[in-house]
Amino acid sequence: MIRTAHWLGYAGLIPFISLTLGMSLHPLTAVAFTTYSAVILSFLGGIHWGVALSKPQWSNPTRLCLCMLPSLLGWLALLLPMTGSLILLIGSYLSWWLWDRAQLIEPDYRRLRVQLTAVAVLCHLVWLVQT
């Protein structure tokens, strides 16, 4: 996997970490955190959508429908109260990580996803404890 993908992945953690560290600074920080989280969750589904469209053996209605699941769960999380939103987002990140692990076997991508998911989920857990 190209180095740029790693740097962009790690840079994507900056909002998670900074909003978690600044959670008590402004009332809209919680909205910013959950909104960013929903956007990133949607992006994870888009990765599978791209793979499904580029690999004929993966391009089937079931897989394409599953690719939409992170976007729908992220949107639903934005409609819930904060505690419910955080629980749904944590469960979605962990579930999608398991799906990634079962479907995408590239070792470098798997390693990166473990690291990124661990930090994102940890930030969500901090929010959950503080809520």
Automatic annotation (TrEMBL):
InterPro entries: DUF3429. This is Uncharacterized protein DUF3429. Keywords: Membrane, Transmembrane, Transmembrane helix. It comes from Marinobacterium halophilum. Pfam families: DUF3429 (PF11911). The keyword Transmembrane applies. It comes from the Bacteria. The chain crosses the membrane at residues 7-25, 31-51, 72-99.
